[in-house]
Amino acid sequence: MQLFDAHCHLQDERLAGRLPEVLRRTERAGVRRMLCCGCHERNWDTVLALAQAHPEIVPSFGIHPWYMEGPALSVVEGRTDDWLETLERFLAGQPSGVGEIGLDHAVIPRADDEQEAVFIAQLRLARRLKRPVSLHCRKTWKRLLEILRAEGGVEWGGLIHSYSGSAELVRPLEEMGLYISFSGAITRPGNKRGHQALAMVSPERLLIETDSPDLPPAGAAGEVNEPANLVLVASGVAGILARSPDWVAEQTFANASRLFAKIINLRQ
């Protein structure tokens, strides 16, 4: 069994002190590739360094909707004035994706216009540089879809990470060029909305992720999640779909490898 973690944050300080052992467990679990997403300017360097040191790590750079100027969910950095130029420089210097980017209406306080402007600027940069995107969305699915339609979808592909939308939105999002990725949240027995959405995903658009170090799946040891736990996500998805874990692993590995093929090939 080989697995592709479609979304994680290995640069997180909760993993920093024990990353070598985390990566050893990851390898033993059969996780062969991981998309590591930067979320703000101050951790892009760390993501880049990890990707340069570990060929199994596929880098992605973006401004997450939590990390905006002014008060937000995060207490750390807002954007610099030249954030977009800095982002383009990172993307141009390394085969990489654009993300984690998106919209979040669960953040209080927030500036919706600012979120949307930053999101759209990054979508357009991804299109111009021909890069796949990794999208975050909470409590604003209708607006996300409106923006994607207005922007002509994601021409070079992308994924919705840790999908929490409805089953009815799956096909419209797939039509925009997106893959649908499920995290450890899908393993929670009470997550009926997630189970219904999972059943609607086209097999060729299905991905799995850990969102490490967050969202540990049911059965994981400890509160800090890591990519080795992708085995548990694959098993949970297999149970919901009445498929084998091997089928889930093979299908999602092929899907993620196809989505990020250009980046992977350029890094080899």
Q: What does this protein look like?
A:
Helix content is 43%, strand content 16%. It has 268 residues and is an alpha/beta fold. Mean pLDDT is 94; it is low at 70-76. The chain contains 11 helices and 8 strands. It has helices at residues 13-16, 19-28, 41-53, 83-93, 112-129, 141-150, 170-175, 192-200, 230-241, 245-259, 261-267, and strands spanning 3-8, 31-37, 57-61, 97-104, 133-138, 158-160, 178-182, 206-208. Helix 6 (141-150) links the parallel strand 5 (133-138) and strand 6 (158-160).
**Main sheet properties:** 8 strands, parallel
The topology string of helices and strands comes to EHHEHEHEHEHEHEHEHHH
**Morphology call:** globular
Give me the side-by-side strand order of the main sheet. Answer: 1-2-3-4-5-6-7-8
Short summary of the structure?
The protein is α/β, with parallel strands linked by helices. The chain contains eleven helices and eight strands.
